[in-house]
Write a structure and sequence with these properties.
- By secondary structure, the protein is of the alpha/beta class.
- Helices cover 47% and strands 12% of the residues.
- It is built from eleven helices and ten strands.
- It binds zinc ion (ZN) (2 copies).
């Protein structure tokens, strides 16, 4: 006989939540998922009153689940979806189509930035540079910058990203192992704006495991990309995540515990090593801790290639 849901006690169990010792039907799972998003947003005071919120959507399951969940939990919230077309052949256009379908369903405004059309560069161009083995890292730097600029242009006060529990716990663990305290501090659930007029950055899915984001997408029939980025590689962080998964098999609550402990120590780290105020990049004027920002250092390599 199939088990009945531990919450409504009527429908059949479809999802096991081992760390919470719950067995839920699909409807109760969706309620559970949405309640956690709401609780996370409120716990960390992610959205100031009347804020316009931008959501960085890649076409992947996490950010798709985020946009959908926020629309569900906060029907009156002013939401704008922000998407970057990275110009990766056989991949980026597929992602954009999924994002367009999603915003159509939700009736949310969408702003798209096409890297090739607007900056004349594609992520693949970095194959010809010293970053050829670090495409994911350079792609991350470029995306972070463009989203910051898109947020200003879209006049949003808050920029929400779909970082999930594994992303955050994995990177935190990695930074911890290597003693990168300043980078550990950057994983806070809410990051203040880099400068006046810019958006704060928030991670409403920080407590949502990756597989639950996927399940939420499947139960809610949410369009998301079905192919992987052809440039993505197993990085150090990915391997570290596998270590976390191995421990989680023995202790399902482990990743949550790790996250909770990190969240407790982050404020202490900031007191130990206060950050110097940010200057401005000499080239683009963007807030930066070095004379020339990471974005300009990388994109100038491509511009130099074009001239050669
Ligand atoms: Zn139920
Ligand atoms: Zn710059």
């Amino acid at each position: 006989m199939p088990l009945t849901c531990g919450k409504c006690r009527s429908a059949n169990v479809e999802v096991q939540i081992p760390y919470a010792r719950m067995s839920l039907c699909s409807k109760c799972f969706v309620d559970f998922y949405l309640a956690r998003v709401k609780k996370t947003v409120e716990e960390f005071k992610m959205f100031p009153e009347n804020a316009r919120v931008g959501v960085a959507v890649s076409g992947g399951k996490d950010s798709a689940a985020l946009l959908h969940a926020l629309r569900r939990v906060y029907p009156d919230l002013k939401l704008v979806a922000l998407h970057i077309n990275l110009g990766i052949p056989g991949y980026s256009d597929h992602c954009q189509v999924k994002v367009e379908k999603l915003v159509d369903i939700l009736n949310v405004e969408l702003n798209v930035f096409n890297l090739q059309e607007e900056l004349g560069i594609k992520i693949g161009d970095f194959k010809k540079t010293s970053f050829k083995n670090k495409l994911c890292s350079v792609c991350g730097t470029i995306k972070r910058r463009i989203f910051e600029e898109m947020a200003v242009k879209a006049k949003v006060q808050v920029l929400a990203t779909g970082h999930n529990l594994e992303d955050v716990a994995g990177v935190m663990f990695n930074n911890f192992l290597y003693g990168r305290w300043d980078q550990l501090a950057r994983l806070k659930p809410v990051l203040p704006p880099l400068a006046e007029g810019m958006a704060s950055k928030v991670k409403p899915l920080i407590r949502s495991p990756e597989n639950e984001n996927l399940l939420y997408c499947l139960y809610e029939d949410i369009p998301f990309r079905e192919i992987d980025c052809p440039f993505s590689k197993r990085t150090g962080v990915r391997k570290r995540t596998e270590i976390l998964e191995a421990i989680a098999k023995h202790n399902p609550y482990f990743k949550h515990q790790l996250l909770n402990r990190f969240l407790e120590i982050i404020p202490l780290l900031e007191n130990v090593s206060p950050k110097p105020p940010l200057g401005r990049c000499k080239v683009c004027g963007f807030p930066s801790s070095s004379e020339i920002c990471a974005f300009c250092k990388r994109t100038s390599l491509i511009k130099r290639l074009d001239k050669a």
